[in-house]
Write a structure and sequence with these properties.
Oligomer: single chain
Radius of gyration: 17 Å
Shape: globular
Number of strands: 6
CATH superfamily of the largest domain: K homology (KH) domain
Order of helices and strands: HHHHEEHEHEHEE
Largest sheet: 3 strands, mixed
Length: about 200
C-alpha cells in the first residue's frame, strides 16, 4: 500500500480519515489490554528484527507521502518496549507538518493508522507502531498527565467517579498508568470514538 492508494491527507479530508482510522475498534481495545491490567506478552515477545522491519516499511511509506504532499521532514526510527516509534521532524522553516497533526491530533491519529495498514499490507503482520510529528505526542503526554492528576484529585476530594474525554487507546494507556501510580483505579467505557476513561477509588 502506498500513499497514492490511500485517501490524501489534507485539511478538507480530516473527517473521512478519522472515520477510516477508527473502523477497527477491536484492534484498539486489544492494544489497550495491557493498560487495563492484562500482560502485554505479545509486545514483549515481538522480535526486534520484525520491529525494525516495520520501521523501515513505515518510513518508506511516510517518505513517499511527504514527497507527494511536498512537505519537508526527517524521519527518525526507534525500537523500544516492544514497539516501533517513528518521528517526523522538520526545522523551523518547514511548512505543512502541522497539517499532518490536525486539530487535537486527529489527522496524526488517522495517519498513524494508515501507516500501520501499509505495514500490514507489506509484511502481513499487524503493527502497533507509534507515529509522532514535531514532538506533538510529547506535549500531549504532558497534558494527559495533568488531566489524570486532576481527575485523581477530584475523586479524592469528592469520592465520585470522574469521566474523562474520549481518547485513543495509546493515550488511554498513558492515563491508566498515571492513575495507577497515584494509587487509584481506572477503566475504559464506551465504544469506538466515544471510548473514554473513568477514574474512581476502586
Amino acid at each position: 500500500m502506498t500513499p497514492a492508494e490511500t485517501t490524501a491527507v489534507n485539511g478538507t479530508d480530516d473527517s473521512l480519515e478519522w472515520e477510516n482510522a477508527h473502523e477497527d475498534g477491536a484492534a484498539e481495545d486489544a492494544e489497550e489490554t495491557a493498560a487495563d491490567g492484562g500482560a502485554d506478552e505479545e509486545a514483549d515477545e515481538t522480535p526486534v528484527s520484525r520491529l525494525e522491519e516495520e520501521g523501515d516499511v513505515a518510513a518508506d511509506y511516510l517518505e513517499e507521502l511527504l514527497d507527494i504532499a511536498d512537505i519537508d521532514g526527517d524521519i527518525d526510527i526507534e525500537v523500544r518496549g516492544g514497539r516501533t516509534y517513528l518521528s517526523v521532524i522538520g526545522d523551523e522553516s518547514a511548512e505543512g507538518l502541522e497539517t499532518l497533526v490536525g486539530s487535537g491530533g486527529e489527522v496524526l491519529e488517522a495517519l498513524q493508522e494508515l501507516t500501520r495498514l501499509a505495514v500490514l499490507s507489506q509484511t502481513g503482520t499487524r503493527s502497533r507502531l507509534v507515529l509522532d510529528i514535531n514532538g506533538y505526542r510529547g506535549e500531549r503526554t504532558k497534558y494527559l498527565h495533568s488531566i489524570a492528576e486532576d481527575a485523581v484529585a477530584k475523586v479524592k476530594a469528592d469520592g465520585a467517579a470522574v469521566h474523562l474525554e474520549p481518547m485513543s487507546s495509546y493515550e488511554r494507556k498513558i492515563v491508566h498508568d498515571v492513575v495507577a501510580d497515584l494509587g487509584y483505579a481506572s477503566e475504559s467505557e464506551g465504544e469506538g470514538a466515544k471510548r473514554h476513561i473513568v477514574v474512581s477509588t476502586d
